[in-house]
Write a structure and sequence with these properties.
InterPro entries: ATP_grasp_subdomain_1, PEP-util_enz_mobile_dom, PEP_util_AS, PEP_util_C, Phosphohistidine_dom_sf, PPDK_AMP/ATP-bd, Pyruvate_phosphate_dikinase, Pyrv/PenolPyrv_kinase-like_dom
Organism: Blastococcus jejuensis
Catalytic activity: pyruvate + phosphate + ATP = phosphoenolpyruvate + AMP + diphosphate + H(+)
Bound molecules: phosphoenolpyruvate, magnesium ion
Number of helices: 36
Helix content: 40-55%
Largest sheet: 8 strands, mixed
CATH topology of one domain: TIM Barrel
Radius of gyration: 33 Å
Keywords: ATP-binding, Kinase, Magnesium, Metal-binding, Nucleotide-binding, Pyruvate, Transferase
CATH architecture of one domain: Alpha-Beta Barrel
Family: Belongs to the PEP-utilizing enzyme family.
Number of strands: 33
CATH class of one domain: Alpha Beta
Strand content: 15-25%
CATH superfamily of one domain: Phosphoenolpyruvate-binding domains
Structural class: alpha/beta
Shape: elongated
């Protein structure tokens, strides 16, 4: 098996095998861009290593072969004492995992080759600086030594020299640092730092493989839903040096602004430095535009290369580069992460530039990104005081209590507190804190710093580089330029779109995208900005290409009307139980407690006109669109007082000798109706069969409301839905009664009442007998909440709090099956029901109305299995429209 590929052998389409970095280095090499020569060890080799605990037997020989070729191309030998070839050993998985895995630079340096390097480069200082970096990175990464030991030692030397900057250390000081670093290695590991260059390289390769399973990598993968067995590739690249002097440097850049999508020069540059200095935000960078004054030649070449990359990849690219003595070298490129707004804007910009078509533009954005654009925004004004303005690194509005460490962020968030994580800069160890926080604020680092990159990837609000703030993580406070001190627990507000930071809580308002959906901003008006126009164009196209209809779950006229403005094509689920609460509860109680038919009918007669009015208003809001009304579902005891509360009340009254008949009757009824597992008890269709007149009252209210609308010139389209059916006999019995009522109302009112009758598919037995059930149903709607509950045997109200965190930690699933459909399990049942249902009744209308109707991945599945529509909450309607479009492409 071929485990190793030269950069000239691969291409950008081989990400799975070569990792993203390796594939793109190969692509750039083949484009003729200045990439330092090197080779890539495949992800296959990593998977072999992770499985067997050792590298494939023939890997070493293949690496030797490629190393020999590299040495020949470079005219140097790895670690040669006189003129050493040095290499970097970098991780690079198929899915981008920024900063999560390891990298070792300057491999090949030892006590002898450091002299050779000094001679060749004409700089002792540079050679010893490179050597100390190798020992530091190798020590941390390969030998597992706590990085603090090295940092302390370096700080100590700086302190002795009375300086705070690495740049003030000369070669003698750096030799001293190297000596101390080697002592640390000996102390911490009991062995000397390895002098053999090849041994250094092999150990570094294994360390990169191992870093696939570092804690932070595991957390990141779980969050980003990256498969845990994919493995990383390893890139061995000949070193070029950004730390050779002020005519050298290193930087990162974007071809467009990843926050706003605007075109221009975006990036950071650091003179006389190596890559990790920039990403770690250790020293302050200068804006990339300044490079033009520093080194016009290299700047020009960089701009040209970036525009070439953008037209080649047909997308925003981010890059890492190094300038070695005025010569530009490309170290990495990839299609860059971007904020949600930028994703929409860039997609339509690229369409206008003729690089992609509208189909591709729809593919380039996601429902999750659209959902982010619908989050509330800050309203200017209010009584919060602005403290400073940093960089707008990842858009959004976050309000929370300031905390100064990742551990605190997690602790506070677990207690249910909203927090903003405040750091000088973040590093990969801060990942769990960033996940827990509402937003992230840093005082150092640019838009390409760790905090910014990771926050944008997570869609988390981030303000970075707020340099005016003096952050003291030890004292758990920061000081603003006006002298205000913000302590742990003080509420702050940060705006990732403007970079502003306030003390106190800033009020929020609906963003422009929501106002566009509401119809308050016309897409062709002056009020519409680039973002609104892009969203409009992309959603319009998604609507054109999608096959799935999108309906909404709504049970009030207001929600129905809003959902319709948001693009809903009907109601997929109107839960009537919500109409039995409030003042009507008393009537329901009377109904449940009725001891005679007369009493029961009296209660039903009082409820009926109220229900009719509810439906009337909803039909009006949904005029001309299908409106699925579900008959009462939950157990009746939900409408009665709590058993324990009531028992206490009765006991207290007894004590006082104040017992009354009514309360005792109520208690008896509540006791009689008490169920151990109400979710599996008397609910749904079972209720309709057991409580006489309940469902027929609801059907009558629907029919009368529809008749009234029709007479008024409206176009009501009711669909009556029976919940929790498990056997066709249940449905048949209800259907027979319902049809009688419909006919009766039609006759009385003198109008034809158009209503279909269908069922929810929520219990596994309904799935398995879907062919029989289809005989009595005009439509099926999958209730995936209950179907998930009953398929897994998970109580939907209890398990998420009880033990899902353990299941998520153990990787039993990557996301709750109540949030995103369990496709292999619950999805398989849906497929069966689709096949059996349509087999028995071709053209059977099929929909889904569980929470999964607004979840992007689930929507794609529902498209694939051939459902006719998804139904979700009003605010998810645009998300579902977009994802249904993406699924169809
Ligand atoms: C379902 O079970 O998926 C459903 C939509 O019904 P409810 O959530 O009301 O039980
Ligand atoms: Mg249900």
């Amino acid at each position: 098996q071929k485990w190793v590929y030269d950069f000239s052998e691969g291409s950008k389409d081989q990400k799975d095998l070569l990792g993203g970095k390796g594939a793109n280095l190969a692509e750039m090499t083949n484009l003729g861009l200045p990439v330092p020569p090197g080779f890539t060890i495949t992800t296959d080799a990593c998977r072999y290593y992770l499985e067997h605990g050792s590298t494939p037997p023939d890997l070493e020989a293949q690496v030797s072969e490629h190393l020999a070729a590299l040495e020949k191309a470079m005219g140097k030998t790895l670690g040669d004492p006189a003129d050493p070839l040095l290499v970097s050993v970098r991780s690079g998985a198929a899915a981008s995992m920024p900063g999560m895995m390891e990298t070792v630079l300057n491999v090949g340096l030892n006590d002898e080759s450091v002299e050779g390097l000094a001679e060749q480069a004409g700089s002792e200082r540079f050679a010893w600086d490179s050597y100390r970096r190798l020992i530091q990175m190798f020590g941390k990464t390969v030998l597992d030594i706590d990085g603090e030991h090295f940092e302390h030692a370096l700080d100590e030397v700086k302190r002795e020299q009375g300086t705070e900057s690495d740049l003030d250390l000369d070669e003698e000081h750096l030799k001293d640092v190297v000596g101390r670093f080697k002592a640390i290695v000996r102390e911490q590991t009991g062995a000397d730092f390895p002098m053999d260059p090849r041994e250094q390289m092999d150990l570094a390769i294994n360390a990169v493989f191992d870093s696939w399973n570092s804690e932070r990598a595991i957390i990141y993968r779980r969050r980003e839903r990256i498969p845990s067995d994919a493995g990383t590739a390893v890139n061995i690249c000949s070193m070029v040096f950004g730390n050779l002097g002020m005519d050298s440097g290193t930087g990162v850049a974007f071809t467009r602004d990843p926050g706003s999508g605007a075109q221009g020069v975006y990036g950071d540059y650091l003179q006389n430095a190596q890559g990790e200095d920039v990403v770690a935000g250790i020293r302050n960078t200068v804006p990339l535009a300044d490079l033009e004054n520093i080194d016009q030649g290299a700047y020009g070449e960089l701009m040209e290369t970036m525009s070439r990359l953008e037209s080649h990849y047909r997308d925003l690219c981010d890059i890492e580069f190094t300038i070695e003595r005025n010569k530009l070298w490309m170290l990495q490129t990839r299609v860059g992460k971007r904020g949600a707004a930028a994703a929409f804007i860039i997609a339509t910009q690229l369409v206008d530039e003729g690089l992609i078509d509208m189909d591709e533009a729809v593919r380039r954005v996601s429902g999750d990104q659209l959902a982010q654009l619908m989050f509330p925004r800050f309203v200017e004004g209010g009584d919060a005081t602005q403290l400073t303005e940093g960089m707008n690194a990842s858009p959004g509005a976050a309000v929370g209590k300031a905390v100064f460490s990742s551990e605190e962020a997690v602790k506070w968030a677990d207690r249910g507190e909203k927090v903003v994580l405040v750091r000088r800069e973040t590093n990969p160890d801060d990942l769990s804190g960033m996940i827990a926080a509402e937003g992230v604020l840093t005082s150092r680092g640019g838009k390409t710093s760790h905090a910014a990159v990771v926050a944008r990837g997570m869609g988390k609000t981030c303000v970075c580089g707020a340099e005016e703030l003096q952050v003291d993580t030890k004292k758990k406070q920061f000081r603003a330029p006006d002298g205000t001190v913000v302590n742990e627990g003080d509420v702050i507000s940060i705006d990732g779109s403007t970079g502003r930071v306030w003390l106190g809580e800033v009020p929020v308002e609906a963003p422009a995208v929501v106002r566009y959906f509401e119809g308050e901003i016309a897409p062709d008006s002056d009020e519409a900005d680039d973002l609104v126009r892009s969203v409009h164009r992309i959603l319009t196209h998604a609507d054109e290409v999608r096959r799935l209809d999108v309906r909404t779950n709504a049970d009030t006229p207001e929600d129905s009307a809003r959902a319709r403005r948001f693009g809903a094509q009907g109601i997929g689920l109107c839960r009537t139980e919500h109409m039995f609460l409030g003042e009507r509860r008393q009537l329901v109680e009377t109904l449940i407690l009725a001891e005679s038919e007369d009493e029961r009918n009296a209660a039903l007669d009082q409820l009926e006109p109220l229900q009719r009015q509810d439906f009337l208003e909803i039909f009006e809001a949904m005029d001309g669109l299908p409106t699925t009304i579900r008959l009462l579902d939950p157990p009746l005891h939900e409408f009665l007082p709590d058993l324990t509360d009531l028992s206490v009340r009765v006991a207290v009254a007894e004590e006082r000798g104040e017992q009354d008949e009514g309360t005792l009757r109520l208690l008896a009824a509540v006791q009689a109706m008490h169920e151990q597992n109400p979710m599996l008890g008397l609910r749904g269709v079972r209720l309709g069969l057991v409580v006489p007149g309940l469902f027929t009252m609801q059907v009558r209210a629907i029919a009368e409301a529809a008749a009234e609308r029709k007479k008024a010139g409206g176009d009501p389209r009711p669909e009556i839905m029976i919940p929790l059916v498990g056997a066709v006999q249940e449905l048949e019995a209800i259907r027979e009664e319902a049809e009688k009522v419909l006919a009766d109302v039609a006759e009385k009112e003198g109008v034809d009442v158009p209503a279909t009758i269908g069922t929810m598919i929520e219990v596994p037995r309904a799935v398995l007998t879907a062919d029989e059930i289809a005989g009595a149903a005009d439509f099926f709607s999958f209730g995936t909440n209950d179907l998930t509950q009953m398929t897994w045997g998970f109580s939907r109200d209890d398990v998420e709090a009880a033990f899902f965190h353990a299941y998520l930690d153990k990787g039993i699933f990557g996301i709750s099956p109540f949030e995103s459909l369990d496709i292999p399990g619950v999805g398989a049942l849906i497929k069966i029901a689709v096949e059996r249902g349509r087999g028995a009744r071709p053209g059977l209308k099929l929909g889904i109305c569980g929470e999964h109707g607004g979840d992007p991945d689930s929507v794609h599945f529902f498209h694939e299995v051939g459902l006719d529509y998804v139904s979700c909450s009003p605010f998810r309607v645009p998300v579902a429209r977009l994802e249904a479009g993406r699924a169809a492409l």
